[in-house]
Amino acid sequence: MLSRLMSGSSRSLEREYSCTVRLLDDSEYTCTIQRDAKGQYLFDLLCHHLNLLEKDYFGIRFVDPDKQRHWLEFTKSVVKQLRSQPPFTMCFRVKFYPADPAALKEEITRYLVFLQIKRDLYHGRLLCKTSDAALLAAYILQAEIGDYDPGKHPEGYSSKFQFFPKHSEKLERKIAEIHKTELSGQTPATSELNFLRKAQTLETYGVDPHPCKDVSGNAAFLAFTPFGFVVLQGNKRVHFIKWNEVTKLKFEGKTFYLYVSQKEEKKIILTYFAPTPEACKHLWKCGIENQAFYKLEKSSQVRTVSSSNLFFKGSRFRYSGRVAKEVMESSAKIKREPPEIHRAGMVPSRSCPSITHGPRLSSVPRTRRRAVHISIMEGLESLRDSAHSTPVRSSSHGDTFLPHVRSSRADSNERVAVIADEAYSPADSVLPTPVAEHSLELMLLSRQINGATCSIEEEKESEASTPTAADVEALGGELRALCQGHGKPEEEQVNKFVLSVLRLLLVTMGLLFVLLLLLIILTESDLDIAFFRDIRQTPEFEQFHYQYFCPLRRWFACKIRSVVSLLIDT
Length: 570
What we know:
Elements: H1 2-14, E1 16-22, E2 28-34, H2 39-50, E3 58-63, E4 69-71, H3 78-82, E5 88-94, H4 107-122, H5 130-145, H6 169-181, H7 188-200, E6 210-214, E7 219-225, E8 228-233, E9 236-242, E10 246-252, E11 255-262, E12 266-273, H8 277-295, E13 305-306, E14 316-317, H9 324-332, E15 360-361, H10 366-373, H11 376-382, E16 407-410, E17 413-416, E18 418-419, H12 439-449, H13 469-486, H14 489-524, H15 530-536, H16 539-569
Parallel strand pairs: 1-5, 15-18
Antiparallel strand pairs: 1-2, 3-4, 3-5, 6-7, 6-12, 7-8, 8-9, 10-11, 11-12, 13-14, 16-17
Helix pairs in contact: 4-7, 5-6, 5-7, 12-13
């Protein structure tokens, strides 16, 4: 009896799994789930822990054993989606950026979105002019340390905070000046609200880039925002397509297709190539979800989308949540006492160290600075948390933009290297405008953005260590082959067209054969229908019936009788 109880308890323990979710303030939430628990169950536990009601904007992100990032699907089993060994590690992040974050009903929701955008600012996903950068940093400073106090904040106090990938002394002075003179008296909630209002006006607000190549083999980054689909190349936005102009999203292998219908019935098909089929499928699913969330009026309008052509099996996916309009209507009905918010304050942040102290390297020669920026290993390390860092430059912004971070990790201790520069040049970004001599580095960084090789320890989504020189060299050969494959898009298109035509011919012939068999069976049956009766009376049918069908039927009957008799004898 005791052994039965012990075996039963051991089996129940085997069906339970420990999950750790890293939150936006870098704290961790740990819970235990059953083997068959759905993603919705874990997400509800997390939102209950955060006291969050406006939860449709958020999601849980994880990395599979192949180092590909995913959003946790709430209708499927958590264990089956992760496909890794427990304990499971995931991250709580903003999945759908609010079109107007200042219009969110509850302060707790605005605070979580504030934390996400602060991370975007630090990791280079939210780029802006120097003047806008100083104002955003001053809002963060006011929210975290309050009003300027000469007794507590000595000269140069803003240099002890890391808001961006790199600082200049001029920018630090500007941040301190705005904090001292313009923001005095603002509460943390007010500063966060003003921060959101300013961030919303930036062109890269809500950008979540996916690395790809266009049909010419040039590096490109695709992103889905609250307002539409964006294509980024180098440091410029080359396409912006509103959601109501996007008619279809499709992928085949590594190829992603975007069908666009613009004014005057002008139809466009944009084609891009992802690094791997898994990355392309992730891109497609993100596009389906964003289009449904921002474009549709009701969740009842959501339909299952297939990536396949006619007659051919492909991936099927359906967005399972509510749409933006329904979320706003539901938020307006919330009536409760505002929940208490425990702000992170001065606690050091590992992945978004806006309040960590780091060395500021001043007077670095420009040649040395560029050498630092084209280091492959540092480039890989710099993106381990962001997973989407993309240099973007808007043609509407005349000022210079903030480049990306260069940071490295040694023995699990983060070292933030901040390079001072009076003018922020887009050419110094982690992902420069693609040219021939930097193509390999660019592809390495693109693979890193998808989480392919480097450590993602900062997000605690993978325990892979920092790649060695041998790993980088081996990866270089693989990426060169990938670049060569993308260098011949015309041949790929021709081959795919020929294969599609051959498959269509085979399917057509198969359907005709099946229809012919069905017609023969129906005409040889006893169905008394005028159509079949007319066919039976034709000389051709009678000849076919007596010369071919009857002998074939007798042959089949003979064979069946022989097989049956053989089975009976045995």
